[in-house]
Model the fold of this input.
Amino acid sequence: MTSHKNLTICFLAFVILVFAVLFNNYYGNIGVHPIDTFAHLDSGYNILNGKHPIKDLWIISGILIDYIQALFFQIFGINFNSLVYHASFFNALVSLALFFLLVSNKMDIFLSFFFSISVAILCYPVSGTPFPYLHSYILSLISIFIFIQCVKKNKNIYWFFLPLLMFFSFFSMQMPSGLINLILLISVFSYLIISKDKKNFYFFLTGSVFSVFIFLAFLYLTKIPIESFIVQYLLFPLSIGEARITGTEHGWYGASLSNKLTLRGAFGHFKFIHLFLLGFVFIIIRSFFSEKNKNISKNVFLNINIVLFSFSFMFHQLITGNQTFIFSLIPILAGLFCLQVNQNFKNEKVIKILTIIVVIFVTLKYHQEYNVKRKFHDLKPIDLTKSVDGINLHKKFEGLNWISTLYPENPNGEIEFLKETFQSIRNDKKNVMVITHYQFFSFVLEKYLNNPNRWYYMGNNTFPSSSDNKYFSDYKKYFSNMLDKKSVERIYIIKASPEGNSRLNIEFFKQYLSNKCFENKRINPMTTVHTVKNCN
Done:
């Protein structure tokens, strides 16, 4: 590369970095979905004080996210902006990863820049704040990018870092990383065996061993029991996935595969992804009828994998209970498709122009729907102009345009209820437990509050909530031990609304406790406090 070209690449990379961060920062501060927006505030803060997920908090995902958030608190301070910066960093990371992948494989610099900017618009800004599925999705994408470089460039460093990225993606969220990692493992070993590449096999193995060492060191340093890890992070989440696929009563409502596997759900919703996948299928078929050589064999192998990866992302999206978050896959597929246009199409300029037009249309369409209207966090039907400055709640939320899915017509009323609850907990000299969807009480009060769960969703989707669940006894033991070993004297329950979730009441949690009675008191329409007493 010429020095001028290198300078241009560095400049455009810098522009992508700045744009990806600022763009996500802007939309990450518009509106909140308390259950998801604040999921990693308390857990990230508590890590700084020696309290760890799994051991001190029942989770089903997001271990890596909690520790990264703790790091961002250390760097940027304990405030909401640190949470948004965390997501913005990952938005920049995936955008830059695509840019360098395309440039290193000789795509036009400015076309590479165009696709990367589109990813920066459609990726993390849909949420704006850290979300396990998005972290797993992004790290899985980067794993795929590294795998492409492994095959194309055959450099040792890529083979070493590939298992590390696969490891990190899994410890952000088990899915979609689980599906992607399975395909990657099959593809990696198939490629290394067929190519008889012993050297790179050892580099991949070294990276894998290093990943296992990191995991074992993590368990040792945090003193997390391996049995608790297996139940919380592997077995119980596996039962959730099974329920969603089979559509049993414990699956997420409306998220069973049978409900989503329709012509509109599987094809219409992902039509632009399928459009580019058709292009890859055409290239694969065409390659089989072309002259066989080493380069074509590698391209066919990679294209088949790209199709499999894409279907895995769509399959996972179908069985989640969340809004769609994989539309950034469209400009990624478009960029990878354009890498091969010159070799496979006579009218390559026309194909590229049409691809650019489609990507522009898709980017504007989904930006308006998901970023501007905040659809991912269910804020689309809400008048966002009614938001108030988060500083009204606490100085740590300064700059956040507070309007939530729970009190869309009365954000000030919601804030007043929360402030009143802050004051009650702050003045309480007893050892308390807080049960709430608003995972920021420890973060605001800078006090460990024995929060037992990250989430309290319906059914058995985030913790065993009914006695017929096979992991009910595990959770009951965990909850009961937490209450006893940490000498909890009062339990504060902050509901999501005055009507509240039927689960967020003391009667529900009594099923996990033996010989415990409570003296109940209401603080405000959102909050009740329950003093723990031994039953006579």
User: Anything to note?
Assistant: The beta strands are 30-32, 388-389, 401-404, 432-436, 490-494, 516-522, 527-534. The radius of gyration is 24 Å.
